[in-house]
Amino acid sequence: KAGVTQTPRYLIKTRGQQVTLSCSPISGHRSVSWYQQTPGQGLQFLFEYFSETQRNKGNFPGRFSGRQFSNSRSEMNVSTLELGDSALYLCASSKNTGELFFGEGSRLTVL
Amino acid sequence: GEDVEQSLFLSVREGDSSVINCTYTDSSSTYLYWYKQEPGAGLQLLTYIFSNMDMKQDQRLTVLLNKKDKHLSLRIADTQTGDSAIYFCAESEYGNKLVFGAGTILRVKS
Hints:
Radius of gyration of chain A: 13 Å
Structural class of chain B: mainly beta
Helix content of chain B: under 10%
Low-confidence stretches of chain A: none
Number of helices of chain A: 0
Oligomer: heterodimer
Distance between the termini of chain B: 40 Å
Mean pLDDT of chain B: 94
Helix content of chain A: under 10%
């Protein structure tokens, strides 16, 4: 059974640009959530989507947004990139709640 | 807000048991999790426990939950060098909104 797939795995952007990250959940999973991992702040929750609706939202500025498609695939977008947005962005999928499986992450470097 | 605390470092000898401890503040947590992260990788789900359980065992892993003290522990029996990694404790607030601890670095000496 395929796991959670995130693309791209690595990317480099410059300040002011925007970026879109993609996540394909495990087949049959309807919940996709996103996390940011940095050395300074650790793992922080961004948002969660369940059946195309945002179910939860963390404390990040409006530059961070996401959406979920009818096939449960999800994308997150960060606009007007700042140096501090450099991080590992992790996607996780679940049927609903409980077992939560993470992907390998997308490592974003902002120069 | 909710907080999860873990000790930062644990060193054990190969073959010994490892115990990683975690405390949390949210008494309404539904699930509590243990994840493992190796260098350059994502998070691997090791085990999770529903908040109305006291203990869960899965092969070499034993999770103990003390709800009164809001204390969670992960015991790894017969620790191997491949167990060297960072271990994260997490609690779920609502849905799949997890609050993570800072992680415990486990070093296994051969």
